[in-house]
Amino acid sequence: SSHYAAKAMGCFVLPIGASMAERQVDYLVNPGSTVLLSTPSFALYIAERMNQRGIDPSDIPLRIGCFGGEAGAEIAPTRKKIQTRLGIEAYDYFGLAEIGPTCSSECEEKAGLHWVEDHLLVEIIDPDTNKRCDPGETGVLVLTHLTKEAVPMLRYWSDDLARLTTEKCACGRTHARSEGGILGRADDMIIYKGANFYPVQVEKVIRSFEELGDEFRIRLSTDEKTGIDVITVIAEYKTKEVDNVEFKNKVKRAFREELEVTPELDLVEPGTLERTMFKAKRVEDKRVKAD
Ligand SMILES: [Zn+2]
Question: Where does the AMP-dependent ligase C-terminal domain lie (predicted)?
């Protein structure tokens, strides 16, 4: 795992539980960790707690963060927030239990996840045709072990969506990369009024507004009277002043551009939405399904 890999590199590893935000902050101050490995959601939560305790990013020696477990580090507004609030360079990395803890990571160019192609055969498959996608085309990530001796996986269907490029990276590495990282889960796709989109696209919009908090929820429901499906995005305002029609319309227009649908927007007080520590579950689908 990343734990043993870091140890093998000579790092001193402090394993801290995912629910221990206060202790995380303590350890960032003293002894002063220099690298943080967590989910992007948890990193933002740690930053929030740091801020509440009056600790400035320049007060801690943290330099680098590697973020996995969920998408986020490659979503530009999220990366920017993590970098600014923790005063670090933030990198995306990816692994999955069935294949290996970490099998791809960004390099210093932040140009997508480089795959460990010496250990894995990486394919992107079109789920409709089961044929390989062309470079740059989005499909399902399918992985085959090349060097694993116990329980090797042959063409493991991850259900994660990605694209692949074999163009040489500016860092000099020639390992294939997935630009933009993991783009979503095939089963995460929200189908609403003929448009398809992923929760990460909602995240991108929410986190591009400085007036809004980092947490959000997507609620899909069916209006009892009309039988029409309704989509509502719930987000936290930072100050009450932005809870007005004009600002909400600005956010809704940004949604329209990104998702091709316009959800309802519900703004709530800061701290209302529960902070996610590990893999974020932000979609609630209560639509009445037609028979
Ligand atoms: Zn590179």
Answer: 194-287
